[in-house]
TrEMBL record:
InterPro entries: MFS_dom, MFS_sugar_transport-like, MFS_trans_sf. SUPFAM superfamilies: MFS general substrate transporter. The chain crosses the membrane at residues 33-52, 58-82, 94-115, 193-212, 247-271, 283-301, 313-331, 337-355, 376-399, 405-424. It is found in: Cell membrane. The lineage of its organism: Bacteria, Bacillati, Actinomycetota, Actinomycetes, Kitasatosporales. This is MFS transporter. It is a multi-pass membrane protein. Keywords: Cell membrane, Membrane, Transmembrane, Transmembrane helix, Transport. GO terms for molecular function: transmembrane transporter activity. GO terms for cellular component: plasma membrane. The keyword Lipoprotein does not apply. Residues 21-430 form the Major facilitator superfamily (MFS) profile domain.
Length: 453
């Protein structure tokens, strides 16, 4: 007897653990972006005085911020390896590895000796830890999103995969609150031991995530694929040969992350500059409130995408972000704090959340099970690498005074164009069965010469 279409769409796959997979994804992403925000703040305020104190202040800050970008340079390389192994040995193994690597490297940063203690070895060790963090981040969101998608009922893939991005907002929110608290310490205590505390606290998140992830079963889709046709020897070859168009779409779509980096880094620097004069603490609270709203907006947008489709919701986020970010940067230029708070929440907490909440399902559904993790990891990390350096370009575009907000607004809007093109050219996938995802190009992927039993 055949199963009615509606019940098949709502049924959890045999062996599926959608809630546990979503929780595991949330924990890992929270740890990753907790580190992202803490490291960025420390690189701007602490590390120039701790690891690069023999240079003049301007050079020390430049060198410190350069270590922030190292992780973005490492991400595409890490994506090649972690994507390969995720499609070869499973999503769970990669998720456990990335969590432990991120937790360990973040904790070690808090233990590093300063330049005053060991000389030039200190910044070298800092860069090494940052590279390890970048490698970990390269596989975290792709493996977590793949895991959540493949455990979820077909008609709720958007909702369950959105927990990966809810975790990123949760991590940023926690990091903001921790950094606000630590920054209240006296200067000598902050520079001697206070700055280390946020890095040490990452261990608690890593341990909690490890206990959850080690009990999580491999996804039904991957287990069925491995037991049936087998896994690919070289997923990357199949990805580039048969899924190159969707890979390009993911790379273009991932540029939407530039909205996040410009909001959290450049806009913060602009608002606290002499030309505007906002206090850092007040602007940190804008980010905290926006992230708090995003915790509810992300699953709401994702649930809507389960009903009306990924493309329209994603387009709302991409097109809307181009407009809303212009409004937010204009608000900063006015120096009106109430206006900054309202438009900051609208731009980042509400509008950007539409694209941010739906991309894990939108990108993941472009690929078949056999190359899903590779496609998501490589595509997103190349796009994210560009987004990571968008702040540097924005600083140049803003002019010598760093206050040409309109030029940065136009630059941000331009970075939203490739995501719009990617969405318009993609096929709608929210109604497809999980086993049929990527079917347009997956047929050739089962050739015997590329498969191991």
């Amino acid at each position: 007897m055949s199963v009615p279409a509606e019940s098949a769409a709502t049924a959890v796959p045999p062996g599926g653990q959608p809630r546990k997979a979503a929780l595991a994804a949330w924990i890992g992403s929270a740890l990753e972006y907790y580190d992202f925000f803490i490291y960025g703040s420390a690189a701007a305020l602490i590390f120039p005085k701790v690891f690069f104190d023999e240079s003049d202040p301007a050079t020390a800050t430049l060198l410190s911020l350069a270590t922030f970008g190292v992780a973005y340079a490492a991400r595409p390389v890490g994506a090649l390896f972690l994507g390969h192994f995720g499609d070869r040995i499973g999503r769970k193994n990669v998720m456990v590895f990335t969590l432990l690597l991120m937790g360990l490297s973040t904790f070690l940063i808090g233990c590093l000796p300063t330049r005053a203690q060991v000389g030039g070895l200190a910044p070298v060790l800092l860069v090494l830890c940052r590279v390890l963090q970048g490698i970990s981040a390269a596989g975290e969101q792709a493996s977590a999103s793949s895991m959540s998608l493949e455990h979820a009922p077909p008609n709720r893939r958007g909702f369950f995969t959105s927990f990966t991005l809810s975790g990123t907002q949760g991590g940023q929110l926690i990091a903001t609150l921790v950094f606000i608290a630590v920054s209240q310490l006296p200067e000598d205590q902050l520079m001697s031991w206070g700055w280390r505390v946020p890095f040490w606290l990452s261990v608690a998140v890593a341990v909690a995530g490890w206990f959850i992830r080690r009990r999580l079963q491999e996804t039904p889709a991957f287990a069925e694929q491995a037991a049936g046709e087998g896994v690919l020897r070289l997923p990357l070859v199949t990805l580039l040969r048969h899924h190159w168009a969707d890979l390009l779409r993911v790379i273009g779509g991932a540029l939407i992350a530039s909205v996040s980096t410009i909001f959290t880094v450049w806009a913060l620097a602009y608002a606290t500059s002499d030309s505007v004069g906002m206090s850092r603490t007040s602007m940190l609270w804008v980010g905290a409130l926006a992230n708090l709203v995003a915790l509810g907006a992300i699953p709401a947008w994702a649930t809507l995408s389960d009903r009306i489709g990924r493309r329209p919701v994603y387009l709302i986020g991409a097109v809307g972000s181009a407009v809303a970010m212009s409004g937010y940067l204009w608000a900063i230029s006015t120096g009106s704090y109430p206006l900054i708070v309202v438009l900051g929440i609208v731009a980042f907490g509400v509008v950007y959340s539409a694209a941010n909440g739906v991309w894990p399902s939108f990108y993941g559904e472009m690929f078949s099970t056999r190359v899903r993790l590779s496609g998501m990891a490589i595509g997103t990390q190349i796009g994210f690498a560009v987004a990571g350096f968008a702040v540097t370009f924005a600083a140049q575009i803003a002019g010598p005074g760093g206050d040409d907000w309109s030029a940065v607004a136009l630059f941000t809007a331009a970075l939203c164009v490739p995501p719009v093109i990617a969405a318009l050219s993609a096929r709608e996938t929210h109604t497809l069965a999980t086993e049929d995802l990527g079917s347009r190009t997956a047929g050739a992927a089962s050739r015997p010469e590329t498969v191991t039993a």
